[in-house]
Amino acid sequence: MPHEDRIRLTEIEFHGHCGCTEAERELGQRLSLDLELFLPLAPASQSDDLSLTIDYVKLTEAVVRTGRQLRPSLLETLGERLAQLVLEQFHPSRVTLRLRKVAPPVDAIAGSFEVEITRPQ
Questions:
Q1: Is the pLDDT of residue 117 over 60?
Q2: Where are the alpha helices (DSSP H) in the chain?
Q3: Which helix H or strand E contains 41, and what residues bound it?
């Protein structure tokens, strides 16, 4: 049975401009992102060579930069765009992301709004 290795980055936070209201897109709000990337880690772990795996800092910088720039209405749209960016720039075999509005503008929600998206390469 083949190994299914993965890298996880959790609670990447940034100020984004995602929402159905003009105020959400204009003023923005705190967003939080978890990423799970599937790829073979044995080559990097055996050689201790960063070039054989994913640079966490470059990955974080790329998703935060894009998450801050885009102004979609839907969390789903932002999640899809971020998943595509990860696949195109970092080449995992699959990515799962969880993107959430940390404090959504709804009184009854004490937690968050969240979408989870999984995409293969």
A1: yes
A2: 22-27, 42-47, 56-69, 75-90
A3: none
Q: Is the dihedral of CA 101, 104, 110, 115 positive or negative?
A: negative
pTM across the whole model = 0.92
The 8-class DSSP code of residue 53 comes to: S
CB 86 within 8 A of CB 37: yes
Record the tokens describing residue 89, joined without a space. Answer: 């720039």
If you average pLDDT over residues 38-63, what whole number do you get? Answer: 96
The β-bridge relationship of strands 29-38 and 94-101 is: antiparallel
Q: Using 50, 70 and 90 to split pLDDT, how confident is the model at 2?
A: low
CA pseudo-torsion sign 118, 12, 3, 55 = positive
Q: Which residue matches tokens 């696949």? A: 87
Residue 112 pLDDT greater than 90, yes or no? no
Q: Give SS3 for 4.
A: coil
Q: Which two tokens stand for residue 121?
A: 């390469």
